[in-house]
Amino acid sequence: SPPAVVAPSILSADFGALGAACSDTIEQGATWLHIDIMDGHFVPNMTFGAPVVTKIRPHVQRPSAARGKGTFDCHMMIAEPKKWVRDFQKAGCDLYCFHYEAAITSTAAENPVDHSEARTNPKEMIRYVHDNGMLAGIAIKPETSVDVLWDILENPKQEEIPDMVLVMTVHPGFGGQKFMASELPKVKALRERYPELYIEVDGGLNEETIDQAAEAGANVIVAGSAVFGAKDPATVIKVLQESVEK
Ligand code: DX5
Ligand code: ZN
């Protein structure tokens, strides 16, 4: 099975000292950085865009291998995921994780300026992210059935296969929400069919909820408030990591 990865979500970090927060969390044992991009449209909250990612990139060493330490895991909670691929690649994103729900509704009608850029579908999006030199992730909200993913994962075209699936365990938009154990059967179903797949869980993960998520088969653990709100973040990171490894 794939390695355990702890990806602190910088949504709960001090935005006034973001560079230091990023380098600190890597020093404290984090494997990746989970970077939440929100556009106030796909989700009812806003964060920041590519310019901020550009500024924090020098604070964290680039991964030496695909999905290695220092990976910038950008969680794109945005209505037009295709539009920002190039900007995020230039900013230093390593893994561009878009939402399935945005990819299927991102139609030309929503972007009258550039129809070709906006019209997309999940498989095309994955190919487009790969063509732009990044790993591709696909995320599903709690409302979305895991069944939409089978066709995408079964695709014989290698370049259209995602490098990671993100199963949301809260409704996206805010940190510090309650973990939804109701989403774990999705993780279990994915793990049963795909022993090597990178499966990420995001929302409400902490020392209390980690065991259920790990048991279901998640190997990439996002944690925002649990890490950045802790007195001793290194210990929390270690507990999350070891809970997946055991
Ligand atoms: C929620 C974000 C999460 C969030 C998790 O929309 O995608 O990454 O930061 O925060 P916690 O770990 O506090 O639930
Ligand atoms: Zn996230």
UniProtKB/TrEMBL annotation:
It holds the Pfam family Ribul_P_3_epim. Its EC number is 5.1.3.1. Its cofactor is Mn(2+); Co(2+); Fe(2+); Zn(2+). InterPro entries: Aldolase_TIM, Ribul_P_3_epim, Ribul_P_3_epim-like, RibuloseP-bd_barrel. It comes from the Eukaryota. Pathway: Carbohydrate degradation; pentose phosphate pathway; D-xylulose 5-phosphate from D-ribulose 5-phosphate (non-oxidative stage): step 1/1. Belongs to the ribulose-phosphate 3-epimerase family. This is Ribulose-phosphate 3-epimerase. It comes from Stereocaulon virgatum.
